[in-house]
Amino acid sequence: MMTEESDYRPGGRPLTGRMVLLAILGFFGVILTVNFIMATYAAKTFSGLDAVDPYDSGLAYNKEIAAAKAQVMLGWTVDLNRTNDAGVTQITVSVKDKTGQPVGGLDVPLAFHFPATRKFDRFVSATPVAEGVYSGSAELRPGRWEVEVSLNRGGQRMFLSRNSFLVE
Question: Which one of 48, 56, 77, 139 is at 20 to 30 Å from 29 when CA atoms are compared?
Answer without folding.
Answer: 48
